[in-house]
Amino acid sequence: MKGYAMLGIGKTGWIEKERPVCGVLDAIVRPIAIAPCTSDVHTVWEGALGDRHDLILGHEGVGEVVEVGSLVKDFKPGDRVIVPAITPNWSAVESQAGFSTHCDGMLGGWKFSNTKDGVFAEFFHVNDADGNLAILPDGVDPAAATMLSDMIPTGLHGSELADVQYGDKVCVIGIGPVGLMGVAGAALRGASNIYAVGSREACAKVAKEYGATDIINYKNGSILDQVMEKTKGKGVDKVIIAGGDVDTMDEAIKMLKPGGKIGNINYLGSGDYIKIPRVEWGYGMSHKSIIGGLMPGGRLRMEKLVSLMLTGRLDPSKLITHRFEGLDKIEPALMLMKDKPRDVIKPVVIIK
Ligand code: NAD
Ligand code: ZN
C-alpha cells in the first residue's frame, strides 16, 4: 500500500509499505476522510519528537473497517468509524489510574504518526478496536467528523484541564482549530467573558461564532496588557493555552487571578525550559495551577462528542476552510498546515 510519510526531519514523501497486520483485538481501517494537524508539522519540520524514518503521518480521520481481529466484539467489516488520534491500550495500569494518554509510558497513547504508522495511507491499523473506535452515525458528514479525532477532544480537553466553571472569565491563547475548540468548550462549560487571542481574521470571526466575547490581537501589543485592561487589572480565572511558545506560560501566569488554573494543550515543539515568573506566581504561594495534557482518546469520548454534533450543540464544520478529494491531496493539505496562509483554519481530504 502507499502512504505519505515523514522520511526524516524536514522531509516528507510517498512510500510503499506492507499493509498492516491485524491482531486479535485490532482493526484494519480504510480512510474515508483525513486531516493534517499542526502536530504533524511540529513532528516533521521541528523534529520535535526526534528523528523518524519512513513513518506514515496523520492521526485524524474517519474510515471504513475492512478487517477485525477474532476477539473484537462490537465492530465488523463495512462499519464506518470515528478514529481518535489517541488510541490507548486500555488494559495498561496507567489507563486504570485514569491516565490513558500515558499508557505504557509518557504519551504512550499517542501511537499514530508517533510510534506507528498513521492514517495518511490506503489502510491503517487500530489497536484495541473495541476500546478505541466509535460508530460514525448516519447523517454526520465524514469531513466534519474528522474534527472528532483531535480538534474537538483536544480543544475541549483544554477547558476540562482549566476546569472552566459557570461565569469564569477565560483567556484562550491561540485560536487555530485547537484553540477555537477551546473557545467552544469554555462556552459550553458556562464561561462568561472569553478573551480569544489570535491574529488571523478568519480565526477571529469563527472564534466569535463559537462564543468569544473579545478578540485580542497579539500583534497589537502585549497580550497581558490587553487582558489586564479589559479585566480592569483583575485578570482572568482560567487560561487555555493552544498556541505560542515556551514564553507564553509567563504571560498566562501573569494574567491569572490567585487560585486560577491554566490548561495547556499546546505542543511545545522547541525550547528546553518553561519559565514561571516568581513574583506573579505569588513567590511560590499563589495557588495558581498549571496542567498540560494530551487528550485522553478512546471510544467513550468519541461517542459522547459525536452526540454534541448530533444534538446541534457543537458544529465543527466552521473549522474546515479547505476541502480536497483523493488520498494524493494529503500533500498539498499538509503544506497548508505548514505554511498557514491567513485564510486557512483546517483542511480536510475526502477519499470516497
Ligand atoms: P495553529 O498554528 O493553527 O494555531 C495556533 C495559534 O496560536 C494561531 O492562532 C497563532 O496565531 C497563535 N499564536 C502563535 N504564536 C503566538 C503567540 N506568541 N502568542 C499568542 N498566540 C500565538 O495550531 P492548531 O492546529 O490550532 O494547534 C495548536 C497547538 O495544539 C499546536 O501546538 C498543536 O500541535 C497542538 N495540539 C495538541 C494536541 C493535544 O492533544 N494536546 C492535539 C492536537 C494539537
Ligand atoms: Zn492532530
Offer a quick outline of the entry.
By secondary structure, this protein is of the alpha/beta class. It has helices at residues 38-45, 93-96, 129-132, 142-145, 151-161, 177-188, 201-210, 223-230, 248-255, 299-310, 330-339, and strands spanning 2-8, 11-16, 27-34, 55-56, 61-68, 80-83, 124-126, 134-135, 170-173, 194-197, 214-216, 236-241, 256-264, 289-292, 320-325, 346-350. Helices cover 26% and strands 23% of the residues.
Radius of gyration: 20 Å
The oligomeric status of these chains comes to single chain
Instruction: List cofactors, ions and other ligands.
Output: nicotinamide-adenine-dinucleotide, zinc ion
State the order of secondary-structure elements, H for helix, E for strand: EEEHEEEHEHEHHEHEHEHEHEEHEHE
What is the beta-strand fraction?
Answer: 15-25%
- Indicate the percent of residues in helices: 25-40%
- Going by helix content, strand content and strand pairing, the class is alpha/beta
Explain this structure.
By secondary structure, the protein is α/β, with parallel strands linked by helices. Helix content is 26%, strand content 23%. It is built from eleven helices and 16 strands. It has helices at 38-45, 93-96, 129-132, 142-145, 151-161, 177-188, 201-210, 223-230, 248-255, 299-310, 330-339; strands at residues 2-8, 11-16, 27-34, 55-56, 61-68, 80-83, 124-126, 134-135, 170-173, 194-197, 214-216, 236-241, 256-264, 289-292, 320-325, 346-350. Strands 3, 5, 6, 7, 8, 15 and 16 form a seven-stranded mixed beta sheet that branches. A six-stranded parallel beta sheet has the order 11-10-9-12-13-14, with helices on both faces. Strands 2-1-4 form a three-stranded antiparallel beta sheet, with no helix packed on it. Helix 5 packs across helix 6 and helix 8 (223-230) packs parallel to helix 9 (248-255). The structure holds nicotinamide-adenine-dinucleotide and zinc ion. Zinc ion (ZN) binds at residues 37, 39, 59-60, 85, 150.
